[in-house]
Design a protein that fits this description.
single chain; Butyryl-CoA Dehydrogenase, subunit A, domain 2; Butyryl-CoA Dehydrogenase, subunit A, domain 3; four-stranded antiparallel β-sheet; three-stranded mixed β-sheet; 12 helices; 9 strands
């Protein structure tokens, strides 16, 4: 019997009931379609409409904008359960984009977009990364120049999650001087928008059902009232303010993958025979699984504690950086060592452990490369 996790205050019966509802819905309505979505390279946008109507898309949003006024822990539970079912991180990006509007939008902007983001009528993406600019946001080159009552946006973005299917983008663009103080966030409704073009649906080594695309802006005209918050030059501060939650939205899926990979591997090793006995009966196997179970327990304990601190408003940036880099490093280690115990079957794409292994690698890259996380932590030592 593995040690029981310490139950944080947020881990109450209500959230466990919600978790069960989400899990059941995913199993019944989404998981059977996932193989087809992998083949086509994206999840159709209409998939998220019933998910939103069930209250699963943005439960943390205020009731005034269509949400349930639940804590952010409910959103993290949704991401946890989606990840365990091998669903990609579309909802995570949608949630982060929606939080920018909730936290920094004018009242008119909130009323205009949040209800549609809550019910799934709109799917959001974040157009941040550029061909020559990733973690270093100060190097953003996409420009939005003022022309009367409009901004005219020119530039290119890449590696954009939801880029192929979304109909609302938070675009990081330069409205002023070089450096961080010249950046702004502009909300762009993309359907039938002149000058906006979705490029290639990028082929990745993992997460094939997650649409990742190139985006191009060629003199795209957007009304000035779509500048997030209504004041230029606040984009960098707006982006930085969401970092603790963004890091947690990577750490929680890391814990989910570790838990699921360990569960599958224990099951497999107890069934797989080698030299006439279950693979699990070999001491080397049992000791390896004991190591991985310990990692799983420590990761989940850390993530649950950080979630509570996020709810309490006490999760500092450095703790979030630690959660992001360390949990994703453990995710990659655990999936690698679990795959090894599957032998040749672990290298077959039809096996979940193979897909988990491939999908895990990007966790150390996006959301701020792990090397950058370590550097940011070291600056405070």
């Amino acid at each position: 019997m593995l040690p029981q996790l310490h139950r944080q205050p947020w881990m109450d019966s209500d959230i466990e009931t919600f978790r069960d509802q989400v899990r059941r819905y995913i199993a019944a309505e989404m998981a059977p379609k996932l193989p087809g979505w992998r083949e086509q390279g994206y999840i159709p946008r209409e998939t998220w409409r019933p998910f939103g109507e069930m209250g699963f898309l943005l439960p943390e949003m205020p009731e005034a904008y269509g949400g349930a006024s639940a804590s952010i822990a409910y959103q993290l539970v949704v991401q946890d359960e989606l990840t365990k079912a091998e669903m990609p991180n579309n909802v995570t990006v949608h949630s982060i984009a929606s939080h920018y509007i909730m936290d920094f939008g004018t009242e008119a902007q909130k009323q205009r977009w949040l209800p549609k983001l809550n019910n799934g009528e709109m799917l959001a993406g974040i157009a941040m990364t550029e061909p020559s600019c990733g973690t270093d946001l100060k190097a953003i080159a996409t420009r939005a120049r003022r022309d009367g009552d409009h901004y005219v946006i020119d530039g290119a973005k890449t590696f954009i999650t939801n880029g192929f299917t979304c109909n609302l983008l938070i675009v990081v663009a330069r409205t002023g001087e070089a450096g961080s103080r010249g950046l702004s966030l502009i909300v762009v409704e993309t359907e039938n928008l002149p000058g906006f073009r979705v490029g290639r649906l990028l082929e990745k080594i993992g997460m094939p059902a997650s649409d990742t695309a190139e985006l191009f802006f060629d003199e795209v005209r957007v009304p000035v009232d779509q500048l997030l918050g209504g004041v230029e030059g606040h984009g960098f501060k707006q982006l930085m303010s969401q970092l603790p939650y963004e890091r947690m939205s990577i750490a929680v899926p890391a814990a989910a993958v570790i838990d699921r990979a360990l569960e599958l591997t224990i099951e497999y090793t107890k069934e797989r025979k080698i030299f006439g006995a279950p693979l699990f009966d070999m001491q080397t196997t049992r000791h390896k699984l004991a190591e991985l179970a310990t990692i799983a327990h420590v990761v989940r304990t850390f993530v649950n504690d950080c979630t509570q601190r996020l709810l309490d408003g006490t999760l500092d940036d450095e703790a979030a950086y630690m959660a992001k880099w360390w949990c994703t490093e453990q995710q990659c280690r655990v999936t690698d060592e679990c795959l090894q115990l599957f032998g040749g079957y672990g290298f077959m794409a039809e096996y979940p452990i193979a897909r988990m292994y491939a999908a895990s690698r990007v966790q150390k890259i996006y959301g701020g490369a792990n090397e950058v996380m370590k550097e940011l932590i070291a600056r405070k030592l």
